[in-house]
Design goal:
- By secondary structure, the chain is α/β, with parallel strands linked by helices.
- It has one domain: Metal-dependent hydrolases (TIM Barrel, Alpha-Beta Barrel).
- The chain has an 8-stranded parallel sheet with strand order 2-3-4-5-6-7-8-9. The protein has a 3-stranded antiparallel sheet with strand order 1-10-11, covered by helices on one side.
- Strand 3, helix 2 and strand 4 form a beta-alpha-beta unit.
- The two termini are about 15 Å apart.
- The relative contact order is 0.16.
- The structure holds N-carbamoyl-L-aspartate and zinc ion (ZN).
């Protein structure tokens, strides 16, 4: 039996929600990962240290007995964020970053930032207090084609942010285009990027060819094959600027299979297995450990994990449902399975 043992990974971008959904999805993440960067786009968004600490307690109390999992909390950056809150976040041992959502870019982003220039004093404070800025890198103009929104964001905003705040550490979340990959490769070591399993495994045909498939709809939207190839190349290159962030984003089935369906793919149930599939297709399984277990921790200046997980080459069928959440690739096969964690 072929096996793959690697240092236990971390997930540097995840939505675990709260309430009932949290209880369904959290055990999946806690089984695979030691730590995860928890996205703050709840309703209402997590904008203060006090709210993040309450949310953290809810997460800890939803963990299965005996689970060793550490949620790394983030705050949602808004035009109303104060410099005092940024300082308090920097002083908290539980807050690891701020998340920038352009207003209206994605699920629960109404409270996001409408004018990036208006938050320049806040970006200066993040730079000063050495807190990473996590960026949903898409413009939101109605007249910008949805497939171009990331590329235009990089040109219009990210270039300026990196130039004006040379010491600010930035993670361009869930990169989806060759242009974004090239930007990250060429820019300073203060920028890194997360890559999701769905953007490594699928191109936009998965959503649109042969019928409309809402469970493949996420933001940034899947792109054409040339972009997927660029992402595979980046993820398997051994370049420490690219690391694992699933962007697992559960929504109940009624909200996905809807005339106006929500964006988000649920992948936490088998995150490592999905990445292993993509890395194996690229004949690069030897690069999985760096991507999944080392580079993110290094970028966040946290110690690498020391225990291991083992995957076994074994075909299994993904269930059609986890509670009322349809997983990515529901009903299809995966060829790696987590066997010891
Ligand atoms: C995320 C969600 O549902 O919270 N959706 C998604 O398609 N990725 C939000 C996000 O990360 O953009
Ligand atoms: Zn996300």
């Amino acid at each position: 039996m072929k096996t793959l043992t690697i240092i236990r990974p971390d997930d540097w971008h995840i939505h675990v929600r709260n309430g009932v959904i949290l209880k369904t999805v959290l055990p999946h993440t806690a089984q695979q990962f030691a730590r995860a960067i928890i996205m703050p786009n709840l309703k209402p968004p997590v904008t203060t240290v006090a709210q993040a600490l309450v949310y953290r307690e809810e997460i800890l109390s939803a963990l299965p007995q005996g689970a060793k999992f550490t949620p790394l909390m983030t705050l949602y950056l808004t035009a109303a964020t104060t410099i005092a809150e940024i300082k308090a976040a920097a002083e908290s041992e539980h807050i690891y970053a701020f998340k920038l959502y352009p207003a209206g870019a994605t699920t629960n982003s109404d409270a996001g930032v409408a004018d990036i220039n208006a938050i320049y004093p806040l970006l200066a404070a993040l730079e000063k207090y050495a807190l990473p800025l996590l960026v949903h890198g898409e413009v939101t103009d109605d007249n910008c084609d949805i497939f171009d929104r990331e590329r235009v964001f990089v040109d219009r905003h990210l270039t300026a942010i990196m130039r004006d705040f040379p010491h600010l550490r930035v993670v361009l979340e869930h990169v989806t285009t060759s242009e974004a990959v090239q930007f990250v490769e060429a820019a300073s070591d203060n920028i890194a990027a997360t890559i999701t399993p769905q953007h490594l495994l699928f191109n936009r045909n998965a959503i649109l060819a042969g019928g409309i498939k809402p469970h493949y709809y996420c933001l940034p939207i899947l792109k054409r094959e040339t972009h997927r190839q660029a992402l595979i190349k980046a993820a398997t290159s051994g370049n420490a600027k690219f690391f694992l962030g699933t962007d697992s984003a559960p929504h109940t089935r009624d909200l996905k299979e809807n005339a106006c369906g929500c964006a988000g793919c649920y992948s936490a149930f088998g995150a490592l297995e999905l990445y292993a599939e993509a890395f194996e297709q690229a004949d690069a399984l030897d690069k999985l450990e760096g991507f999944a277990s080392f580079y993110g921790a290094d970028f966040y200046r946290l110690p690498r994990n020391t225990d291991t997980i083992t995957l076994e080459k074994q075909t299994w069928t993904i269930p059609h449902t986890y509670s009322d959440i349809t997983p990515l690739k529901a009903g299809e096969n995966l060829s790696w399975k987590l066997v010891s964690a």
